[in-house]
Amino acid sequence: MSTATLDDKGVVMACAHCGQRNRIPYERLNQAVRCGKCKTDIPGVNAPVDVDSEDHFNSLVKLSPLPVLVDFWAPWCGPCKMVGPEFEKVATQSAGEIIVAKVNTEAQPSLAGRFSIQSIPTLILFQGGREVARTSGARPAAGIQDFVHQSLGSARV
Predict the structure, then answer these.
(1) Catalytic residues
(2) pTM of the model as a whole
(3) Average pLDDT of span 87-106
(4) Is the confidence at residue 1, as pLDDT, over 90?
(5) In the CATH scheme, what is the homologous superfamily, with its name and number, of domain 45-152?
């Protein structure tokens, strides 16, 4: 599965039909969009978003109208490697309902410090620009979705 990336204006992801890279503005992450090239509907961000800077992280969390579930991880972490494919399943199954993002704590140590990440993987759920819940440890996709449901008080996702 491909990963989405961030830039100053939104989430950039490839169209599943033609491969064209499309930007979905942060403020429109909850709206249906179409590929700029082939006009195919893009169902929402259906892949984990790689967070490449603190500024992009701040924009995503603050401006997204959808809840943002962030996985704080590191490449050397065995449990993190186990959670990776499960996190991808959550992103696919929850497109249009939540945004799934990944923060490599080795590449973004300031974010890890800012959120006092003591163990990895740690999942933090943000809504409306603020942290609403967190949990640590590896779990399957169903367990991650249960965490999101309980944290948001919803039956969907």
Answers:
(1) 77, 80
(2) 0.93
(3) 94
(4) no
(5) Glutaredoxin (3.40.30.10)
